[in-house]
Amino acid sequence: MTDATPLLELRGLGVQLPGDGGPRAVLHGIDLTLGAGEALGLVGESGSGKSMTMRAITGLLPPGAQLDGTVRFEGEDIAAMAPSTLRRYRDRGVGMVFQDPRAHINPTRRIGSFLTEALTLNRGLGRRAAQARAIATLSEVGIDEPERRLRQYPHELSGGMLQRVMIASVLLAEPRLLLADEPTTALDVTIQAEVVGILDQLRRDRGLGMVFVTHDLDLALAVCHRVAVMYAGRIVEVRSAERMHEENAHPYTRGLLGSRPAIDHRAERLTAIPGRPVSAFEAGPGCAFATRCAHVQPLCRERPPELAPFRGGLVRCHRVAEIHQETSDGTSSQEATA
Amino acid sequence: MARLILHRLGGLLVTLLLSSMVIFGSLYLAPGSPENVLFGNRAPSAATRAAVRHQLHLDQPLPVRYWDWLTGALHGDLGRSMVTGQPVAERVGAGLTTTLLLVAMATVLIALLGLGLGTLAALRPGPVDAGVSVATSVSVTVPPFVASTVLISVFAVRLGWFPASGTEPGFLGSLHSLVLPACALALIACGFLARVTRDALREQLVREHVQTAEARGLARWPLLRRHVFRNALPPVITAMGLLTAGLLAGTLVVESAFAVPGIGQLTIQSVAQKDFPVVQAVALLLVAAFVICNAATDLIQALIDPRLRAAGRNT
Ligand SMILES: Nc1ncnc2c1ncn2[C@@H]1O[C@H](COP(=O)(O)OP(=O)(O)OP(=O)(O)O)[C@@H](O)[C@H]1O
Ligand SMILES: [Mg+2]
After folding, report:
1. Of A90, A113, A155, which has the smallest distance from its Cβ to B217's Cβ?
2. Ligand 1 neighbourhood includes A234 CB (under 6 angstroms)
3. Of A299, B28, B139, B162, whose CB is crowded by the most CB atoms within 10 A?
């Protein structure tokens, strides 16, 4: 591995799942790279394929799924890994914080077992040593009385605590890449910020790479270096978090930010994007967002746009330059809105 | 946990007491007076009849007779058979060993085959799963008396590997002669347990916590053992409890078919002969076995699931 090799590289990643009447695409041509220690936000509405991207990264696709393109971790194609190498990659390379800790932690085993099993089973660490490390890590994620927690069962802990336990379990494995799939959506609003704070702090302390999945673009901007916006199984915009507020360009991103283009006076205050999100397989031959876009033109429905550089980021939109022109002029457009 | 055990034990005793009343009462209400068994075809004089009824305490009111019987039973005295005059405890005891052995053998078969086939089907989707599914579908439709007939004609009559009826002397002899009855008894339960096991495992295999374990790179067997098998146990244990309790009822058919001198056969005989003290004892024994199976199931359930254990603490 040279310094130039990214920690994680997705090239033309596509996933098709078996559906009635043939395979259905849920991901399409995802290109992403992540450097060591970098935090990338993955943002999009429900069903846009964020979780599927995470599953593809860990190599845990549903049965019958067909994978296109490549996922490389430190330069190594995970589809080509031998089973033992793949297990090692899952053990030490990548750690996943799931959305719903209550469902994702075995309810019949003690917290201590959950925290130590990867260490004792995968790495042959002794029980006592593993427990000592678990206790130390529990303290790090802000759990009091860690010794007692090890003997408790998941149902005895609150959702927020369980999510900290999950974060601790991932940190214990000392991975180089952290995947967090909506780590706070299942939690009480009052503790969401706390859990995100802990995750962010520990990630920085340890210099881990992270892919942070969320519906909330503002949250992603707050904890990530870069943000990728997904729609219908595709990436529609990638941009640094710092520049996102000034330079956001894709109509969908603008919709998510609640900064609707000025040309659409009637809907200025509307933060939600009108219409229903489509799945990747429902998208027509053109731009997947065409059905909901206020700037749609015949071209948009005919030809799929490419992810192309635009003002320091990448945007998948035929009309991005025109739209930018119109909105930065601040003048009302003469064209009718769709 | 200790509380839960006490709780279950109390429930068990109450159930037994209530069912003993029901059994005693229903025999009292059954047509035909018990002493008729003794007289057979003869028509006794009123004085003789009264004397016999007095001797059998039949002239006492029901609660008194029940009380006498209950205190006797608690001291191990279940009365005497009206047909043979033997103590009931002795008659029942002789059959009990054989029946328990039969049920134990059937349970082992059910556990091995049912759990084994179910697990195989769950872990090997495709042809293996389909094959097991066909086999279990067929097995659950074969009633014990049909299974008994087929087994006897093939393995006893044609091949001569096992005796067709009765039991051979000695423990090994008993084991050998109970192989076919145990198979006939276990067949349906094997099929059911295999299905329950398969479905329970399939349900767990797609659970989120299993995904977590996979994402952590656990090897296949530790993963199955820690996160799939253990979590799939509750429905399997429940099914095993019910099936084992049901086996006792199944012995009625199978023991008659193979002429095995066990409780099942004794029950059928005593009912036919209206040997009331024996019927009472045997019926109570069957109830006890059912209740104990259920209680054991619940306790094992609580051992497996920490949430149930906590619930037991609060009640
Ligand atoms: N196991 C599965 N079988 C079939 N289709 C699936 C499966 N999992 C997901 N999908 C489909 O794949 C698409 C992407 O789903 P995914 O879970 O990645 O969305 P998401 O962006 O994570 O959404 P959410 O914000 O609701 O978590 C959806 O259309 C979904 O219906
Ligand atoms: Mg998701």
Report:
1. A90
2. no
3. B139
Task: Check which CATH number belongs to the domain holding B124 and give it.
Answer: 1.10.3720.10
Determine if ligand 1 sits within 6 Å of the CB of residue A131. no
- Grouping H, G, I as helix, E, B as strand and the rest as coil, residue B259 is coil
**Torsion sign (Cα): A255, A259, A263, A264:** positive
Q: pLDDT tens across B119-137, in order?
A: 999 999 889 999 999 999 8
Same domain, B59 and B116: no
Span A172-189, pLDDT tens digits: 999 999 999 998 888 888
Tokens matching residue B18:
């209530």
What is the rounded CA–CA span in Å between residue B209 and residue B228? 9
Q: Domain range for residue B179?
A: 89-314
B37 has pLDDT over 70: no
Q: Are A121 and B219 a contacting pair at CB < 8 A?
A: yes
Last residue of a domain, one of B51, B74, B97: B74
Mean pLDDT of chain A: 86
Q: What is the pTM of this model?
A: 0.81
CA A83 remoteness from chain centre: 25
A51 CA to middle of ligand 2, Å? 4
Instruction: List the residue whose alpha carbon is closest to atom 9 of ligand 1.
Output: A52
- Give the number of domains in chain B: 2
As for the ipTM of the complex, it is: 0.84
Among residues B24, B39, B74, the one where a domain terminates is: B74
Cα–Cα distance between A324 and A321 in angstroms, integer? 5
Is residue B81 domain-resident?
no
Give the minimum alpha-carbon distance from A63 to chain B in angstroms, rounded to a whole number: 10
